[in-house]
Amino acid sequence: MEEALVIAAHGSHLNAESSTPTFSHADTIRATGAFDEVREVFWKEEPSFREGLRTVDAEEVYLVPLFISEGYFTEQVIPREFRLDEWDPEMWDSDGTSATHATLTADDTGQTVHYCGPVGTHDSMSDVIVQRAKSVTDDPDVGEGFGLAVVGHGTERNENSAKAIEYHAQRIGEMDRFDEVQALFMDEDPEVDDVTDYFESEDVVVVPLFIADGYHTQEDIPEDMGLTDDYRTGWDTPETVDGHDIWYAGAVGTEPLMADVVLERAADAGADVSGAIEQVREETGNGNPATGD
User: Fold this and answer.
1) Same domain, 8 and 108
2) Residues 239, 243: Cα–Cα separation, whole Å
3) Is residue 3 classed as helix, strand or coil in its secondary structure?
4) What are the counts of helices (DSSP H) followed by strands (DSSP E) for the chain?
5) Are strands 112-116 and 101-105 parallel, antiparallel or unpaired?
6) Helix 159-173 and helix 125-137, axial crossing angle in degrees, nearest 10
7) CA–CA distances in Å: residue 287 to residues 23, 154, 257
8) CATH number of the domain that 268 lies in?
9) Within a domain: 49
10) Residue range 108-127: mean pLDDT, rounded
11) 200 and 168 co-located in one domain
């Protein structure tokens, strides 16, 4: 039986670059030959979620949300738009960071859909955050002497938004790789505006847990941290703020290793992609996972 991978992402009508990481990760996975078909679908771009299953011929589909947290989009919008009428959030049996997968039948097409949890709460995302720190510092051994800030949006409307950030900050902290690890937020305490207040380390890597670079990662966060007074003039990497060298990495979702997390989600749902996972890790410079998973 043919198998397809469908990656569901938010997209944007306003930011043309919003979908770029999705296409890039899909291309990486497509090149491995792990699936008969690989498709990208979006909430705010074409092809839309509503058309998602109709873009593939395969009878068996692995549906992976390219979202950071569990919540409105992953629990309501995607299942509704893909017509997964049997869906119930309880199928994931999750506390907000432990979503697994559920196997359902699409009401209109009859396809078998393995609906996976979002990439942002998968354990392998911790590896991507560390890899992002390596990329921005150009140091494969980065850690000793460095602090690491994992930054999220945060919102009182969805408690799971903060849970994903805190989850990965805790996991990376337990590696004892960085001298300090802190979860920071844009819209709740502790705030990224005060990043230097939370670290004693002179060097701090800041990694935003966002899928794509956009308004928040390229304008709000750099200005809020004091990297620049005007994002249009840019900033140095590292940029010195209050006696600390801030290495700002930009959105974690732009890191090539993100393709591995998508594959890991599909593997957890039963896809035979172990060879593809190994290939992606080797090609993205992370043949040895940071977390030891």
Assistant:
1) yes
2) 10
3) strand
4) 9, 10
5) antiparallel
6) 70
7) 23, 32, 10
8) 3.40.50.1400
9) yes
10) 96
11) yes
Residue type, 130: V
- The reply to whether 113 and 138 lie within a common domain is no
| Residue 78 placed within a domain | yes
Question: What six digits make up the tokens of 49?
Answer: 């979620």
DSSP state of 117: P
Tens-place pLDDT, residues 52-77 = 999 999 999 999 999 999 989 999 99
Length of the chain: 293
Q: Is residue 235 part of a domain?
A: yes
In this prediction, residue 286 has a pLDDT band, given cuts at 50, 70 and 90, of low
Taking the C-alpha atoms of residue 184 and residue 10, their distance in angstroms, rounded to an integer, is 23
d(C-alpha 18, C-alpha 209), whole Å:
14
Q: 153 is in which domain, residue-wise?
A: 125-254
Q: Which residue has the tokens 């990760």?
A: 25
Q: Tokens 């990297």 map to which residue?
A: 227
Instruction: Decide: pTM greater than 0.90.
Output: yes
**Cα–Cα distance list, 233 to 27, 63, 142 (Å):** 32, 40, 28
